[in-house]
Every structure is written in C-alpha cells, then in structure tokens.
Design goal:
Number of helices: 3
Strand order of the largest sheet: 1-2-4-3
Number of strands: 4
Order of helices and strands: HHEEEEH
Length: about 130
C-alpha cells in the first residue's frame, strides 16, 4: 500500500480510538458528578468524604480528557501528505520485522491495517528515543 494512504488510515484509526476514549471518560466524569451531587454539603452530612472522593474522581477524568484532547489535536495537525525520511512525530516506520506509527501510545496491542501490524508509540518512549539516534 502506498505509504501516504497508509499514514492517513493510521491517523484516522488513532483519531477514532482517541474519540472513543474521550467519550468513555466524559461519561465516567458525568457519572462521578452525579454521584457527588447525591450527597449533601459538608456541614449537613457525615458522608461529605464520599462527595469529595467523587469530585476527585471526576477531576481525574477531566484531566485525562484534557490530555486526550491535546493528543487528538496533535494528530489532526500531522501533515498527511508528507513522508518523513527520519523517525519523527507522524512518521510511519517500517522495519524488516515490525512497523510503527510514531505518534502516541494509543493502542495496547498492535493495530492491523491491510494485513500488516503497526505499533503506535510515542517519540518519547524508549524505542522512540532509539529511533532518534
């Protein structure tokens, strides 16, 4: 498959996965907010710690969503019509035994595209650092 088409498909797969994760965390965040809203205020209830814990979990989900949104924005900004000659953010790296898409660690398992497995990895991962050498 032509490398540019492959790159575009990998970007789309990654964007779809990030959008699914964002939706999942938004739902979880809303559930935690609903849980927090079920408890009375600190002065009114001995269960105030439950409310605080629910708020903390909601805030943790919000932070995760913010990180995923930044990753999604970075993926959108990848130049899809450029083939990089060196391993860098947005590059498709095909080696003899393995193939990589340098972006973020998005999938826990390799993703199969057109019968070939690709590993998404961060440029800041140990392997990403090795590619920079």
């Amino acid at each position: 498959m032509e490398k540019l088409i492959l790159k575009k498909k990998l970007i789309e797969l990654c964007k779809n996965e990030l959008n699914q994760k964002i939706a999942m965390y938004e739902k979880a965040m809303q559930e935690e907010q609903n849980t927090a809203n079920q408890y009375k205020g600190i002065m009114e209830s001995r269960h105030s710690t439950f409310k605080e814990e629910a708020q903390d979990r909601k805030n943790a989900f919000a932070m995760r969503i913010e990180m995923l949104m930044k990753q999604l924005s970075a993926l959108i900004s990848i130049k899809q019509d450029v083939i990089y000659n060196k391993p860098e953010f947005g590059a498709v790296v095909e080696l003899e035994n393995d193939s990589y898409f340098i972006s973020f660690f998005i999938f826990e398992e390799p993703v199969t595209l057109e019968g070939k497995e690709f590993i998404t990895l961060s440029k800041d991962s140990p392997l990403g650092f090795e590619f920079k050498k």
